[in-house]
Amino acid sequence: MKKKEHKQFYFILILVSAIIIVAGSIFIYNTLFNRPDYDGLRSALQNYVNSVDNIQRIDIGDNGIYSVIIDDSAWNAAPTIDKAAYCKAVNTALTQFSYEFNIITNNTPALVYYYNQNEVLIAKPQTMSLESEILY
Q1: C-alpha–C-alpha distance, residues 55 and 71, integer Å
Q2: pTM of the model
């Protein structure tokens, strides 16, 4: 090989090596520092429950799955359209908390199941949506 060809070969080799090192560093950083913060999430959810009427508690499951226990009297008195709007608002808030505390990625909504005080399922999530299917 000529001297010029050697220089081009080494330049390309150094460039490819640098790209691999940068990509590997980004992967390692994301793996080490973007861990789910369940303690922060619990605190934020407790503050949220205290600020919102009709929610008795929120239980955290794995990977952005939540169980919300709703006050029976408020739920039973509301028409279906209001229940759907309420669920969508809570689903949006819980999805934002999940993103903020690295529980789920930004392209998926949180899965929120609603139960009454007797822990009977009253609403469940729709697939890949912030809306809920109202069961009762």
Answers
A1: 6
A2: 0.75
Local confidence band at 1 (pLDDT 50, 70, 90 cut-offs): low
- Bridge partners of 37, per DSSP, are none
CA 26, 31, 33: angle at the middle one, nearest 5?
90
Alpha-carbon distance of 132 to 83, in angstroms, equals: 9
Q: Which two tokens stand for residue 10?
A: 């080494």
How does DSSP classify residue 64? S
Answer yes or no: is pLDDT of 19 > 70. Answer: yes
| Span 30-48, pLDDT tens digits | 667 778 888 999 999 999 9
Q: What share of the chain is helix, strand, coil (3-state, %, to 5)?
A: 55, 20, 30
Torsion, CA 121, CA 101, CA 97, CA 123, rounded to 10: -10
